[in-house]
Every structure is written in C-alpha cells, then in structure tokens.
Amino acid sequence: MSQQRERRPEFMIEHAVKGMLPKNRIAAKMLMKLRVFAGTAHTHEAQNPIKISV
Predict the structure, then answer these.
(1) Where are the domains of the chain?
(2) CB count, 10 Å around CB of 48?
(3) Helices of type H across 1-54
(4) 1 CA to centre of own chain
C-alpha cells in the first residue's frame, strides 16, 4: 500500500468508492463523474472546498 500511495494516491480512494457502489451500469456512470485529486492543488477553487483532516 505504501508503494501504491507514492505512485498513484488517488487510486486508493477511487478503488474504495468503486467497492461501495452497486455492480451495474449506473456505477460506471457514477465513477466517470468522480474526481479525486492528489495533493492540495485542484481545479475546483470556486466551490470553496473544506479540508478534512485524517
């Protein structure tokens, strides 16, 4: 997991969300809309996102 986190940190979140979705065509459409950003830089500054501490 530590190697995966270094290479593609967004994959871990995408994989977890995919596991929670139903296994059908709707899930594929929902996953296409999912946006996960590694790090603090992203393209949605206008939406005023709130940082969640983990």
Answers:
(1) 2-47
(2) 6
(3) 2-7, 9-20, 25-33
(4) 16
What does the alpha-carbon distance between residue 36 and residue 10 come to, in Å, rounded to a whole number?
A: 6
Neighbours of 30 (CB within 10 A): 13
Q: Per-residue pLDDT tens for 5-43?
A: 788 888 888 889 989 998 989 999 988 888 888 877 777
Please check whether residue 31 is in contact with residue 25, taking contact to mean a CB–CB distance below 8 angstroms: no
- Answer whether 37's CB lies under 8 Å from 10's CB: yes
